[in-house]
Amino acid sequence: MAVLDDTICRVRLVTLLPELTQNLNSYVSLITSDIRAMLEEHYKLEILFSKVALLQEEEETVAHTSSAKKGTVDGEPELMSYDSLVTYRSQLQQQLRHS
After folding, report:
1. Which of 27, 34, 48, 94 has its CA 20 to 30 A from that of 21?
2. More confident site: 37 or 88
């Protein structure tokens, strides 16, 4: 039973994480400063992971089409090579490791 109770507790915590991280100011009186710092760090990592996931999707698209379009400052699309996407992905992964 202890394993089941522990699992239930963990599921509840994971279910609450998105709500807590996105609305930290609403729960500031309920959580300590060290937990708040951890939740802020979790939120930052979550954003970086979503960027990496997006890049992986782009890589898969590029692998099928051999190039992807990326908007420039003036709105004109430019072709972005597969190598550029891979480089950008590795830069994001390094940022993720160092944060």
Report:
1. 94
2. 37
Reported as a single tens digit per residue, the pLDDT across 10-32 is 888 888 888 888 888 888 888 88
Contact 84, 69 (CB under 8 A): no
DSSP 8-state assignment for residue 26: G
Cβ neighbours of 67 (radius 10 Å): 14
* Euclidean distance between CA atoms 69 and 15, whole angstroms: 37
Contact 79, 67 (CB under 8 A): yes
SS3 at position 71: strand
Looking at residue 67, what is its pLDDT?
Answer: 46
With CA atoms as reference, report the closest residue to 54 among 24, 12, 85. 85
Instruction: Give CA angle at 27 (19, 37), nearest 5°.
Output: 85
